[in-house]
Design goal:
Helix content: 40-55%
CATH architecture of the largest domain: 3-Layer(aba) Sandwich
Largest sheet: 5 strands, parallel
Mean pLDDT: 87
Shape: globular
Strand order of the largest sheet: 2-1-3-4-5
Distance between the termini: 40 Å
Number of strands: 5
Number of domains: 2
Order of helices and strands: EHEHEHEHEHHHHHH
CATH superfamily of the largest domain: Response regulator
CATH topology of the largest domain: Rossmann fold
Strand content: 5-15%
Number of helices: 10
Structural class: alpha/beta
CATH class of the largest domain: Alpha Beta
Length: 210
């Protein structure tokens, strides 16, 4: 029986996951958490065969949790299961140590297949993501400007491009307005831009936001 930890801040979605997993004869939900710090604590203290992590968690996000696990040498396989499309976070998640990436639009059968494969030491990605990774490996040109951003800068860039104000972003990420303004200035400088409108245009053009 494979022991699975679920970390997602939406109770209804967690209940749906638990039902899918617990109805499978070789899987069981061992623990669940609704925020990033709680999930990280459980991963440090418990014994699990696999973790399902959302990216957008309160406190710390799924990418940051992956980095902690790598630094602390906690070798649990992690499947990212998120609403964010592959274009936004998949490559960053895999580089941070995830064993797979699925969107919440995936079918229950695909989820179970991914869990079983990852628990055996494999990787699970979609065919479209495999193509993106192949192009990443084969690319020799200069990195796209958004790829030079840190994970936090990238997260804030996406929020700005989605139309969020500095104060809204500060509240959402539990950071000060001054800190977000500093990040914004750094993002614009790294990307060679002057305004939020330029960021928004870039993000839409590169399919980073809808």
């Amino acid at each position: 029986m494979l022991r699975v930890l679920i970390a997602d801040d939406h109770p209804v979605f967690r209940e749906g996951l638990k039902q899918i997993i617990n109805e499978t004869n070789d899987l069981m939900v061992a623990r669940e958490s609704s925020d990033g710090f709680e999930a990280l604590k459980q991963l440090r203290e418990g014994s699990y065969d696999l973790a399902l992590l959302d990216i957008s968690l309160p406190d710390i996000n799924g990418i940051e949790i992956l980095k902690h696990l790598k630094t602390e040498k906690i070798g649990i396989p992690v499947l990212i299961l998120t609403m964010h499309p592959e274009e936004q976070y998949a490559i960053r998640a895999l580089k941070a140590g995830a064993s797979g990436y699925l969107t919440k639009e995936s079918t229950p059968n695909e989820l179970v297949t991914a869990i079983r494969k990852i628990s055996k030491g494999g990787k699970y990605i979609s065919s479209s993501l495999a193509e993106k990774l192949a192009s990443e490996v084969g690319r020799i040109d200069v990195k796209a400007s958004h790829e030079m951003l840190s994970d936090r800068e990238y997260q804030i860039m996406l929020l700005i491009a989605s139309g969020k104000t500095v104060s809204q972003i500060a509240e959402r990420l539990s950071l000060s307005i001054k800190t977000i303004s500093t990040y914004r200035s750094r993002i614009l400088e790294k990307m060679g831009m002057q305004t939020n409108a330029e960021l928004t245009y870039f993000a839409i053009k590169n399919q980073l936001v809808d």
